[in-house]
Amino acid sequence: MLIETAIKALIILAVIATLAGLGTYLERKVLAYMQRRIGPWMVGPAGIAQVAADMIKLFCKEDTIPANANRTIFKIAPFISSAGAFVAMAPIPFLPEFTIFGRTITPMLSDISVGILFVLGASSTCIYGLLIGGLASYNKWSLLGSMRTVLQLISFEIINILSLIPIIMMVGSLSIIDIVNAQNGGIGNWFVWSQPICFIIFLIASFIECNRTPFCLTENDPELVAGCTTAYSGMRFGIFFIAEYANIITYSVLIALLFFGGFNSTWFIPGALSMIIKASFFFFFFLWARAAWPHLRPDQLMALCWKVLMPLSLAMIFITGIVLL
Question: How many domains are there within the chain?
Fold first, then answer.
């Protein structure tokens, strides 16, 4: 069992890290298409080798550290963010069970009874890497970026969990597997139909968790700097991006699992392929939104959180409770 879990962990780590690298290529292509540009095209067929070129560039660039920075904390901050992003994947069932050589394999590390809480809690630890990275940089832009990060993530962590409470009330379990099984029986049983407002709220909160436009304060475009990662270079800068894209993959899969039937079969489409299609669509949606919408101001984002999404979340909890009673 221990060996099997270790193999699963290595496979998930390798696959997600690879997909995170490919995610940078896909984002460039999607943004280029929407802005009538070409995007990467010179390195390899259709520019696909640009991913390898970027990795070589990041590994070879000088690892600069500001003169007055706290060197130890500055160095470990990117790994805190990436560790939180990958640990959050432990209770997520990426695909349905399958059999190989007579052994049933569950493509997840652990089906814990509080899977939802674990995912949200682990992914929220990424805030510490961004926070201490900005504070340790001895740079005013990094400091401002880290403060904005704390502002947005702490606020929307509350919205994140509140939006899922109605589903938890309906299923009676915090296990992701139980939530997916509750949607078995066809498209009509998907929770997106019974809880559409919760889906929209969770989708907005997912953009915050992944630091994505338009609901993002980590980077402020008018500043023309990279927020709390301004002082970082080389592979340390790249690790922050790997964590970000890993979070996008995690939440794309999570949205498909919680609201769109997960790995249950859809019509004639088998469960595994259905899961890949759903998650891929939401990954594309994250990229699409960046090309279509500008950033919200901090005051607009906070107003959206506390004046709109919070009352809606509480209202849905109240309504769901009345219906269930």
Answer: 1
Domain membership of residue 12 (yes or no) is no
- Give a yes or no: residue 55 inside a domain: no
Q: In Å, what is the CA distance from 306 to each residue of 109, 156, 157, 314?
A: 35, 9, 12, 11
Written as one string, the DSSP assignment of 205-237 is: HHHHHTT-TTS--SS-GGGTS-GGGTT--HHHH
Round to the nearest angstrom and report the end-to-end CA distance of the chain.
Answer: 42
The domain in which residue 187 lies consists of 63-324
CA separation, residue 279 to residues 81, 94, 177, 272, 274 (Å)? 22, 9, 16, 11, 9
Question: Does residue 25 lie within any of the structural domains?
Answer: no
CA dihedral 299, 300, 306, 307 (to 10 degrees): 120
Whole-number Å distance between alpha carbons of 259 and 206: 13
Question: For tokens 């060996």, what's the residue?
Answer: 3
Reduce the DSSP state of residue 97 to 3 states and report it: coil
Rounded to whole angstroms, the Cα distance separating 116 from 120 reads 6
* Prediction pTM value: 0.91
Please give the helix or strand (H or E) that residue 175 lies within, else none. none
Read off the pLDDT band of 264 (50, 70, 90): confident
What are the tens digits of pLDDT across the range 129-169? 888 888 898 888 888 888 888 888 888 888 999 999 999 99
